[in-house]
Amino acid sequence: MYSDAGFDVSRCGRYLALCELDPQVGYHLRTFSLQRRSMGVALQTVALPNCPFVTSVQFAPLPFAVLIGYGRCQAPALAQAPQYAVLRCIEFQPKPGGARQLTEEVELFAVDSTDESNVALFHPHPHACAELGFLYATKDGRIRAFKFDRTGMQLGGAGSS
């Protein structure tokens, strides 16, 4: 188990999330149990397509999702402005065995931008997180804040500086 992008332990202390590079497949999100009877058991593995590196990994305050910040991902076509995923929010679905899942099966949302994400964080308060409030900082010093409405499945920007 190795992760350049760091890792996060859920607030309840029962789960570990990290992004791991498999040279043949690319990056994938892996979650593991930290509970005494099942320590180290893989619970979920999610492929992260077209991603050369991950800058941050964080569990939501209530462990139902994991936020993954990306650096620069997809290479744009020559005639297009560069736009690529800067973060993804993956629904945490713990299942013993950790069978590999496709991103589209568990992705709650992704944010595409011309920014380079440096770090991505959920709002620390569980109530705000229940509405999936989060922000990310860019490599050029800007902060972007968003809220994802799970009932309407819409992503809205709450401002940036």
From TrEMBL:
InterPro entries: AMBRA1_autophagy (IPR052596). GO terms for molecular function: ubiquitin-like ligase-substrate adaptor activity. GO terms for cellular component: Cul4-RING E3 ubiquitin ligase complex. GO terms for biological process: autophagosome assembly; mitophagy. This is Uncharacterized protein. It comes from Chrysochromulina tobinii.
